[in-house]
Give the backbone structure.
Amino acid sequence: MFRVFIVTAALVLAALISAGRSEALLDPAHPSAVESDYELIVVEIDNCIYCGLFRRDVLPTYRNSQRARFVPLRFVDLNAPDVEKLSLTQPIDSVPTVLVVRHGQEVGRVAGYVGPENFFHAIERLLPELP
């Protein structure tokens, strides 16, 4: 019985540590996050099937990627007032739309849900080589 408790406690601790690291990758204000000129902003809406697929199929892989250490990713609701503050090159006509932002200015985008493989290929083309 005691061994089961120890194993369970170890698994919970590992999950908490891992979760803390994942959030650091997404939060540029977190002390362990690397400072970057770039950011990915995912514009989505509530109850969007494709936005949910993005979160399910793409987000976990991105969080665990080397790229996430240098380019944080955050979500913004299309109907939120914050969207008006984004410097967009054109209107958003499909969701999810992933904006590649440098110093607050849009420099590229991936419009719509394109699946994990195509998303990562597009991001590789849109972002410069980072350390």
Summary: Helices lie at 2-26, 49-57, 59-63, 67-70, 116-126. The mean pLDDT is 80. The longest strand covers residues 38-44. The beta strands are 38-44, 73-77, 97-102, 105-111.
